[in-house]
Amino acid sequence: MKQEESEILKRLGKDPGFKIPENYFEDFQARMMEMLPEVEITEVDAKPSMWVRVRPYLYMAAMFAGVWCMMHVFSHFNQNISAEQRVSEVASGMYMDNNADEFIMSGGASDYDIMSYEDSVLMDTDEHLND
Amino acid sequence: MASRSTYDEAAVVERLHHQDTARAAFGEVIAHYSSTLYWQIRRMVIDHDDANDVLQNTFLKAWTSIDNFRGDAKLSTWLYKIAINESITFINKKKAQNNISLDDDDSFLVNTLESDRWFDGDQAQVLLQQAIATLPEKQRLVFNMRYYDDMKYEDMSQVLGTSTGALKASYHHAIKKIEAFFEEHD
User: Fold this and answer.
1) Are residues B82 and B22 in the same domain?
2) What is the total count of domains within chain B?
3) 3-state percent helix, strand, coil for chain B, nearest multiple of 5
4) Domain range spanning residue B129?
5) Taking CB atoms and an 8 Å cutoff, what residues of chain A touch B38?
6) Is A1 part of any domain?
7) In terms of domains, do B46 and B79 share one?
8) Is B120 on the interface with A (CB under 8 A)?
9) CA separation for the pair A109, A1 (Å, rounded)
């Protein structure tokens, strides 16, 4: 602050030379109070209602319940999908087996092809049995 | 009415928002802030009677819009803003009455200062008031708040809605202009 002030301002000081009537502020307050019109104040409820206080906790509980429901539904949906997938896989395996039998019976495969196919079926069966 | 030493702003603001206590609480606000606001207004409008009118308008406006004050800002900041707006409105009205352009400076306010019965300053103080009156409105406000009231730039920033950096620059420019005015007229 001191650095900001100029020599001229230091010389003049901070009294601008303004004066006021005696007891001006005391009289002003009294006059001002008489001048104030009636106003309607909108009361601010200092104590929040029960609903306002409980609301955040209810929202949080609802959120957790929602997440739990979604996880439950998702898990159930996954189980259904797995079962359907297994049925589908088995069905497609049977279809492939039937096709292979038809292909062999029609003589479309060589002896080497038939032996390779039987070996692979045997290996698959062994793996399933070991599991 | 409460004296300045027993004034509890938080309690007063709380009471201002209840119908049965608002008027008495506002009485305490008047008692606490009338002097500070008066001097801020007086330095803007110069004449005592004009300052008295503007101060009355300031408190009337504050009282009739007390519902709009929700305590987000300090009460002093809110009152300062009203006082500044009322002062500027008053000066503009006076300019219109005297056929002075709104773009002209406010030095016409100082023309009758020497004959004012509520002024007992010397020629140098008249010159200083003339110099201050030639400043642009915002620089004038900044100069008055800083030089006479020792107000912090952070508080000024709240009232005037300007950054502290800009306020410091404004104060610096104001001093340079006042010095230049004195060099020209001294």
Assistant:
1) yes
2) 2
3) 75, 0, 25
4) 105-186
5) 20, 25, 28
6) no
7) yes
8) yes
9) 104
B11 and B92 inside one domain:
yes
Give mean pLDDT, residues A6-22: 88
Q: What residues in chain A have their Cβ under 8 A from chain B's Cβ atoms?
A: 1, 4-6, 8-9, 11-12, 14-21, 25, 28-29, 31-33, 35-37, 39-44, 46
Digit-coded pLDDT (tens) for A82-105 = 666 766 666 665 555 566 566 666
Number of domains present in the structure of chain A:
1
Q: Residue B66: inside a domain, yes or no?
A: yes
Last residue of a domain, one of B82, B100, B118: B100
Contact A16 B19 (CB under 8 A): no
CB contact under 8 A, B128 and A35: no
> Could you tell me if B171 lies within 8 Å of chain A, comparing CB atoms?
yes
B19 touching A (Cβ < 8 Å) = yes
Query: DSSP code of B114?
Result: G
Question: For residue A2, what pLDDT is reported?
Answer: 47
Residue ranges making up the domain that contains A90: 7-39+46-130
Comparing C-alpha atoms, which of B171, B116, B165, B113 is closest to residue B138?
B171
Q: How far is B86 from chain A (nearest CA, A)?
A: 16
Identify all chain A residues contacting B26, using CB atoms and an 8 Å cutoff: 36
Residue type, B153: Y
Identify the pLDDT of residue A109: 63
Task: Say whether pLDDT at A46 is over 90.
Answer: no
The whole-model pTM stands at 0.69
Residue A43: pLDDT band with limits 50, 70, 90: confident
Quote the minimal CA–CA distance from A61 to chain B in Å.
Answer: 32
| Residues A29 and B34 sit within 8 Å (Cβ to Cβ) | yes
A1 vs B43, B150, B153, B177, CA distance in Å?
20, 9, 11, 17
- Kindly state the tokens that stand for B25: 């609480």
Tell me whether residues B118 and A21 touch, CB distance under 8 A: yes
Spatial contact of B124 and B131, defined as CB atoms under 8 Å apart: no
Query: Comparing A34 with A8, which gets the higher pLDDT?
Result: A34
B130-153: average pLDDT: 93
Q: How confident is the model at residue B68 (pLDDT cuts 50, 70, 90)?
A: confident
